[in-house]
Amino acid sequence: MIDLVGLDGDDTLWHSEEYFARTGDALADLLGHYAEDERLRALMLERERANLALFGYGVKGFTLSMIETASEISEGRVSTAEIQAIIDAGKDLLGHPVDLLDGVAQTVATLAATHRVVIITKGDLFHQETKVATSGLADVVHGVEIVTEKDPATYRRVLERQATSPERFVMVGNSMRSDVLPVLELGGHAVHIPYHVTWELEVAERPDARHDRFHELERLADLPDLVSGL
Length: 230
Hints:
By secondary structure, the protein is of the alpha/beta class.
């Protein structure tokens, strides 16, 4: 039986990546006179990938990567007005209201009535704390784990803190790379619920559909029935 249900935050409980994508589109428009769209987006992704080890996940690292991209793509000619526009875009992302996906509040409450439920989300500590607090879910779930990375070692530490074993744990999220593969590696269950936008750095190969601990759903509302049957 499942003892602990882990729920990803961004793009599983509340919308996130679509706002980053819109900001990326705005950056391409802002800097379009320096380079073609494809080259600019490729450079931005390269900078994001390189900066993860320095800045981690989240809006602040994303904003710094945008500024670095602007400086490089313009060969140092980027204007102070353009830099300010990028900073303002980052602030807008940080201040964006938390918008829950359809049915999330009721589904989380249903799960929490029968199982221990913990939000396991990665990113900037302050921003993720703010998202959880304003989501209305903090008083419903049994705990919150904000981590810098989602890999087997991180999940192992989370399970130790939560005093449960991998085989009694199910992780639910939209990312194959972060929410599915490392949990399966540990011996836990993983449920993939795709979001309509996926950050390229979260894309990973899908597990074999015959894997007995890998599950797929189209919506979070179907999760309570799935968990009760595990």
